[in-house]
Design goal:
Elements (H helix, E strand, L loop, with lengths): L1 H17 L3 H33 L5 H17 L3 H7 L4 H29 L3 H15 L11 E5 L4 E3 L6 E6 L4 E6 L4 H35 L3 H26 L3 H18 L13 H9 L2 H30 L4 H14 L1 H5 L1 H8 L1 H20 L8 H4 L2 H4 L1 H14 L5 H31 L1 H39 L1
Antiparallel strand pairs: 1-2, 1-4, 3-4
C-alpha cells in the first residue's frame, strides 16, 4: 500500500513539473518568500526598537507614571457627572459647574507651566501638584446630597427642602412635590463647586507639567513618545472596568474616589524619580511664548485642539448620562473605556510611523471628522450596548491626536519654553475645552434634549474640520506665493 502511494505521488510530481505554468508558480513562490522575509525583517526591527526603548533607564519611570496616570483618570473622571447627578443636582447645576471650571483653567495650567520653565528642574513642584490633586478628590466624600423635591406641608403651606433654600420651578398639587430647577442657593452646591474647581485645576496643571517633562526628556535623551504612552493604555484597560465594578457593587462612588487618591499619591512618589536636572531655567519666557503663538500654523493647531477638547468634554460629561437614561450599567461603561483603550494600542505603538506618513494636519482633520461621525451615531442609539461600536474609533480622536500635538510641540518649540507651551495647549484641551463642552452641552441638552444636542455637536465638529482645512490650505498657498515672489526677485 505504501509503495502504491509513493508511485502515485511520484507521477503527480513529474506531471506538475511538466506543466507550462511551473515557472510562474515558482516565481510566485519566490515573491511570496521575499514578502515574508521583508515582513519578518520589519517585525524584527520593530521588536528591537521596542526592546531598545524598554532598556532605556531614563524612560523607565516615565512608563510607570503613564500607567498610574491613565489608571487614575479612568477611575474617577468619566463618572463625575453621574456622581453629581446621584447627589441630587440638576442639569442646570452641572452647567454652572462646567462654566466656572474653564475660567479657572485659563489661568491655572499656564501659570504652572510658566513657573515650571522658570524653575528649570520642576520635579518637586509637579509632584506636589499631583499629590494635592489626589487629596482634593477626598473632599468629594464630605459633600452631602441634596433633595431635588420637597414634601408639601398642608398645614404650613410651604415646601420643606433639606440643605437650605432651593429654587422651585413649579409645584405639583396632586403629588405634593416641588420640582427643583437648580440648587444654586444651597451651601452644599457651593461646596461641591469649590471642590470640583480645585480638582480640575490641579489635574490639568499636573497632567500638562508631566507631558512637558516627558517631551523634554525625550528631546534631550531620545525615545519615542508613543511607546511611553502605550503603557498608559494598560492602566486604563485594567482600571476602567474595575472602577465600574466598584460602583455597581458598592452602590456609591466612595470606592473610586479613594482609589483615585491612592493612584495619584503613587504617581507623585514616582515623579520624584524623574531626572530633570538637564532642563535650564527659562529666560524671557513670555516674550518667547508670544512669538510662538503669533505663528498661524500654531494658532490653527491650538484652535483645532480647543475644539477637540470641547467635543471630548461634552462626551465625557454627558455620554454616560445619556447611556444611563438608556439603561446602561456602570460595568458596561467601564467596559467601553477598556475597549476604547485597547483599540488605541496599535495606534500608540505605530504613532511615530503614522504621524510621519500622514502629517500632523491630516491627523487633526481626521480626528475632528471622526468626532462628528461618533456624535451623530450616539444620537441614533436606541439600545445602550450598540454604542460600543463607536468606541473603537475613540483613540483616533483622543490618543493619536494627543500624541500628534505633543510631537508637534517637541519638534517646533525650544526647550526653555516647552512647559509653558505644553500648558497652554493642555489648558485649551483639558481645561477650557473640556469645561466649555460641559457648559454648552448642559444648556443644549436642557434646551433641545439629548438627541438634538449630539447632532448639533456633530455638526460643530465637521464645521471645525472644514475651518482648519481652509486655514492650513490658505497658509500653504501664502507660503508658496511668498517663495515664488522671492525667487523672482
Amino acid at each position: 500500500m505504501t509503495a502504491t502511494i509513493e508511485t502515485i505521488s511520484k507521477k503527480i510530481d513529474t506531471q506538475t513539473t511538466e506543466l507550462p505554468t511551473a515557472n510562474t508558480t515558482t516565481e510566485v513562490g519566490k515573491n511570496n518568500g521575499r514578502l515574508i522575509k521583508k515582513v519578518v525583517e520589519k517585525l524584527k526591527r520593530g521588536l528591537q526598537f521596542l526592546w531598545k526603548d524598554l532598556t532605556k533607564k531614563h524612560l523607565l519611570w516615565v512608563k510607570i507614571i503613564f500607567f498610574l496616570q491613565s489608571a487614575s483618570l479612568v477611575t474617577l473622571y468619566p463618572y463625575l457627572t453621574i456622581h453629581l447627578k446621584s447627589l441630587g443636582y440638576t442639569i442646570e447645576d452641572a452647567s454652572l459647574v462646567n462654566s466656572v471650571i474653564p475660567v479657572a483653567d485659563i489661568f491655572g495650567p499656564p501659570l504652572a507651566g510658566f513657573l515650571a520653565d522658570k524653575l528649570g528642574n520642576f520635579r518637586l513642584f509637579m509632584a506636589i501638584l499631583t499629590l494635592l490633586n489626589g487629596a482634593s478628590s477626598l473632599l468629594l466624600l464630605a459633600i452631602p446630597p441634596v433633595f431635588i423635591s420637597g414634601q408639601f406641608n398642608e398645614t404650613i403651606g410651604d415646601s420643606i427642602v433639606a440643605n437650605s433654600s432651593v429654587i422651585i420651578e413649579h409645584f405639583n398639587e396632586d403629588l405634593g412635590v416641588g420640582i427643583v430647577a437648580n440648587n444654586w442657593l444651597t451651601e452644599a452646591f457651593w461646596s461641591y463647586l469649590t471642590v470640583r474647581v480645585l480638582l480640575d485645576v490641579l489635574r490639568a496643571s499636573s497632567l500638562m507639567l508631566f507631558e512637558g517633562a516627558v517631551v523634554s526628556i525625550i528631546k534631550q535623551h531620545g525615545g519615542d513618545y508613543g511607546l511611553q504612552k502605550l503603557f498608559g493604555t494598560f492602566g486604563a484597560v485594567i482600571f476602567g472596568p474595575l472602577s465600574g465594578v466598584l460602583i455597581d457593587f458598592g452602590h456609591d462612588y466612595s470606592g473610586v474616589i479613594i482609589l483615585y487618591f491612592c493612584l495619584r499619591a503613587a504617581t507623585a512618589l514616582c515623579i520624584l524619580k524623574l531626572d530633570l536636572n538637564f532642563k535650564p531655567k527659562g529666560k524671557k519666557v513670555l516674550r518667547n511664548l508670544s512669538y510662538v503663538l503669533c505663528q498661524v500654523e500654531v494658532l490653527a493647531f491650538l484652535f483645532a485642539f480647543l475644539m477637540a477638547g470641547i467635543l471630548w468634554g461634552y462626551l465625557e460629561n454627558f455620554l454616560f448620562w445619556h447611556l444611563e437614561d438608556l439603561g446602561a450599567t456602570k460595568f458596561l461603561m467601564g467596559i467601553s473605556l477598556a475597549i476604547g483603550t485597547l483599540a488605541g494600542v496599535p495606534l500608540t505603538m505605530f504613532s511615530t510611523l503614522i504621524i510621519k506618513n500622514l502629517g500632523h494636519h491630516k491627523i487633526v482633520i481626521f480626528a475632528l471628522v471622526l468626532y462628528g461621525i461618533r456624535l451623530f451615531g450616539y444620537a441614533e442609539l436606541s439600545q445602550a450596548e450598540t454604542f460600543l461600536a463607536f468606541e473603537v474609533a475613540k483613540p483616533f480622536c483622543t490618543t493619536l491626536l494627543l500624541i500628534s500635538v505633543m510631537t508637534f510641540v517637541k519638534d517646533n518649540i525650544p526647550l526653555t519654553t516647552m512647559a509653558t507651551v505644553e500648558a497652554v495647549f493642555g489648558s485649551s484641551y483639558f481645561g477650557v475645552g473640556r469645561g466649555l463642552g460641559g457648559l454648552v452641552g448642559g444648556f443644549a441638552i436642557e434646551a433641545f434634549g439629548n438627541v438634538t444636542s449630539f447632532r448639533l455637536f456633530g455638526a460643530v465638529s465637521l464645521a471645525s474640520a472644514g475651518i482648519y482645512t481652509l486655514v492650513i490650505a490658505l497658509q500653504k498657498l501664502y507660503k508658496s506665493r511668498k517663495y515664488v515672489v522671492q525667487d523672482s526677485v
